[in-house]
Amino acid sequence: MYRRNRRHVGDIESLPFLEALRQMRHEQGRGNCVFVHVTLVPWIAAAQELKTKPTQHSVKELRGIGIQPDILICARNASFRRK
Predict the structure, then answer these.
(1) Does the pTM exceed 0.90?
(2) Distances in Å between the alpha carbon of 26 and those of 17, 19, 31, 67?
(3) Is 25:33 a contact under the CB 8 Å cutoff?
(4) Residues 42, 27: Cα–Cα separation, whole Å
């Protein structure tokens, strides 16, 4: 089963969906369910660095409601340049 939750972790509207996913893993078993968390790691041009704090925060929020991502996919808002 594939379920995509396109909401933000902290939104109260997403809590019923996240709870349903948490319960599904409990019912199906850890070996039959994988949580993939897709997150943005923004490039801050002024500081010339990637900011990982939003990803750390969203993972913390997920863990706080009983969901631990098995896989993190980190997207970047700027392309890589070859030198």
Answers:
(1) no
(2) 14, 11, 10, 10
(3) yes
(4) 35
Provide the token pair at 49.
């660095």
What is the tens place of the pLDDT at every residue in 44-74? Answer: 889 888 899 989 999 999 999 999 999 999 9
Return the sign of the alpha-carbon dihedral for residues 47, 11, 6, 29. Answer: positive
Mean per-residue pLDDT for 12-31?
89
Residue 80 is predicted with a pLDDT of 59
Secondary structure, 3-state, the chain = CCCCCCCCCCCHHHHHHHHHHHHHHHHHCHHHCCCEEEEEECEECCCCEECCHHHHHHHHHHHHCCCCCCEEEEEECCCCCCC
Q: How far apart are CA 5 and CA 8, in angstroms?
A: 8
Which residues lie below 8 Å from residue 23, measured CB to CB, with a gap of 6+?
none
